[in-house]
Amino acid sequence: MLTVRAPATSANLGSGFDVFGVALERPADIVRVSKADRTTIEVTGAGSQFIPEDPEKNTVGAVAEALSAPAHIQIDKGVRPASGLGSSAASAAAAAVGLNALYDRGYSREELVPVAAKGEAVVSGDAHDDNVAPSILGGFTIATESGVRQVDASIPLVACLPDIVVSTRDARRVVPEHARVEQLVETVGNAATLTTGMHRDDPGLVGEGMHDTVVTPARAKLIDGYESVREAALAAGATGVTISGAGPTVIAACYEGSQRAIASAMLDTFGEHDVEARAYQSRIGRGAQIY
Ligand code: HSE
Question: How far is the CA of 81 from the centre of ligand 1 (A)?
Answer without folding.
Answer: 13
